[in-house]
Amino acid sequence: MTAPTRASVNARLARHRWRVEEVQERLLTWFGEHGRSFPWRADSASNYVRIVSEVLLQRTRAETVAEFFPLFTRRFPSWRRLAAATDGELRAFLEPIGLWRRRAASLRALATEMNTRRGRFPRDRGEIEELPGIGQYIAGAVLIFCHDEPEPLLDVNMARVLERCFGPRNLVDIRYDPWLQVLSRKVIDHPKAREINWAILDLAASTCRREL
Q1: Crossing angle for the helix pair 156-166 and 193-206, nearest 10 degrees?
Q2: Of 27, 103, 105, 131, which is least surrounded by CB within 10 A?
Q3: Better-scored residue on pLDDT, 3 or 42
Q4: Cα–Cα distance between 27 and 30 in angstroms, integer?
Q5: What's the CA gap between 108 and 111, in Å, rounded?
Q6: How far, in whole angstroms, is CA 176 from its chain's centroid?
Q7: Active-site residue among 54, 149, 195, 211?
Q8: Is the pTM of this model over 0.85?
Q9: Is 113 an active-site residue?
Q10: In whole angstroms, how far apart are CA 111 and each of 36, 65, 83, 95, 198?
Q11: What are phi and psi of 207, to 5 degrees?
């Protein structure tokens, strides 16, 4: 399928202007009643805790990560300590969730880089995505959690919710689909951007689930 032009995407978005505002308010209301509680969502959670959790959450249920996450952050409370972790230490936590060697290497590489940066992420998305183990999704997490910018945590789960609310995307790969990229940023463009992100992810996990 041919990718739409920017003009056609903007025209499509304009037709959904009021729908976007309605969806934002409904998401916030739903989240207030049904949103999940995790350690990395606590007001006291550090940037380190938030970003490490997002790395662990890739292709893994949030409830699964929540089971070992408090112990994980006690064992590795900083980028410095995580960078120095041995395979054996990391394996004990990561083997049950799969691909532990790849996850361990990715976590350690990012931790090593962030330790040299004293925990400070760059503000530019392009620079963030050049860091080890960081793609579009984690870059969005860095921008919203570390720099308080309204960025979407766009993955297949968010894509599913948005498509059911606003219609299908054009391209298979959500990273390059113009409609989802523009739409997700519009929906998250709100003073409570974090809560809307979490609401969409929680809705995808509990109600708006993948059809079998």
Answers
A1: 90
A2: 105
A3: 42
A4: 5
A5: 5
A6: 17
A7: 54
A8: yes
A9: no
A10: 27, 19, 5, 19, 25
A11: -125, -55
